[in-house]
Amino acid sequence: MAKKPFFITTPIYSPSGNPHIGHCYTTVACDAIARYRRMQGYAVLFLTGTDEHGLKIEQKARSAGIEPQAYVDGMTERFRKLWDVLNVRYDRFVRTTDDYHVRTVQSVFQKLYDRGYIYKGQYVGKYCTPCESFWTPKQLVDGKCPDCGREVTDAREEAYFFKLSAFTDAIGKLLEGGTFLQPNSRAKELIGNFIKPGLEDFCVSRTGVTWGVPVPFDPKHTVYVWFDALLNYISALGYENGAFEDFQCFWSADVHFVAKDIMRFHAILWPAVLTALGLSLPKHLAVHGWITVGGEKMSKSRGNVIDPYVLTERYGTDAVRYFLLREMILENDSEFSEAVLLKRVNADLANGIGNLVARTVVMVEKYFGGTLSAEREAAPIDEPLIKSALALRNKTDTTMDNFRLNEALAAIFEVISLADKYVDETAPWVLAKDPIRRARLATVLYNLLETLRITSGLLVPFMPTMMPKIWEQIGATEEDVAYDKLNQWGILKPQVKVCKGEILFPKRELQEHV
RNA sequence: GCCGGGGUAGCUCAGCGGCAGAGCAGAGGACUCAUAAGCCUUUGGUCGGUGGUUCAAAUCCACUCCCCGGCACCA
User: Fold this and answer.
1) Most CB contacts within 10 A, which of A363, A377, A404, A405?
2) Chain-centre distance of CA A1, in angstroms?
């Protein structure tokens, strides 16, 4: 039977600045989900990329004294490099400056124009001449340009509009359905703020911006960056461009994962555009909050941007991944501080799973010379541990289906904690003193190794770098930790051979801040 | 201003009609396999305030005070 397809996307990031820890969360979350699905046997297409058009990029490039294309070429590499450092395994990287993407954008624009969903109208607003920027009255600060604080003038220009107003009912139904948008509280926001008053048509072209995709039938206009950007999700599959053959197989997306600031475009504009194109809608839109520092959104002007390179270098890839995935919850913003990271990583990774691996492996070495004997003697006290370890995969399946990665991790670490308790209750060091209880001792240690096999197996999607090192130490093969073995007991061979190794997650002290 | 969500232990939060809970932090203890790790016990709360419904209210209702999120073209 052919593998079931699974298509997951990050937003395409703007290379107008360096990638920060917020980009990392979205991307690592998608990577964990993608890896989990691959483990489950899906044919996964995990898409990420960069959104390279628009005035801001053009200005950045000019002020750096280089051409926009050269600028974005350089910046895009920084994103790719960071994903490598974070061990993010994406399948495709789309850039809005790629030829095939431009072809899709132009084709879609033409198609929607031909179908009457895009029409020529007039954009009315305020204009700041030095900034070359249009603003809405609401955006103004004290009636002046929010960027430079100077006077603005009334402005109108001809522009193309997308008939978003025609989709108020359809989008309203989609949002009320309760399954499309996660978490549901976000859907309520959108319904109250946009659907209830009714959607307005959306301006999808600009004349003042030259760094963009020209409108095919009116090239003095360029396509508005958001309209351009959203189409990456289908251009990267080859829709209307001939570059890839994946559209039939992978559309529609199983989930778009985005931060709350760009939810509106994904929850309202995007489904409307797809409907106008006659395409099916993404199955889920998962919206997460921001990572805050000192209670505030990270931003360059506040000088509180966290550099992910420094963090990974200092604490390791998997520690950073674990922190992000364990601390971030879908509903709210989450506060970042190095102290919180340290606490989490020390408590769960160093004192938790790392220490459990160490104590278990050492006991097998000490009491059995590294190779467990095959004799067994079960006891009632083994049951709760075995039962919860065997029930774990179902739990993580469900939480992953709902994009609650933090809950999946919490469930896994509950079992780790149970295993620590089991060590105390069974007291292997007491059993070891009595030669008659050798079979019992072997059973206890085997149960601990099996618990580690299952938990580390379920943790690979989250910490793909370190988990294989656990397998080496506990004597597990790749097949032992295959998905279909993670709800079975007794997979490690009876005379399993362990191998003591390095400390996996050393305990860390707080250093100077990043 | 409008639309949502929330105020419960020092911190993060669960509970949403039936004896106030968990994790972390703090205190004490037993143990020794382990990364001074892990385990056990334990301190700690007028459940934002007022009034109501009820045999019974963190829980339902009304009012009130705070906090947070969102409010379209961030071009």
Assistant:
1) A405
2) 29
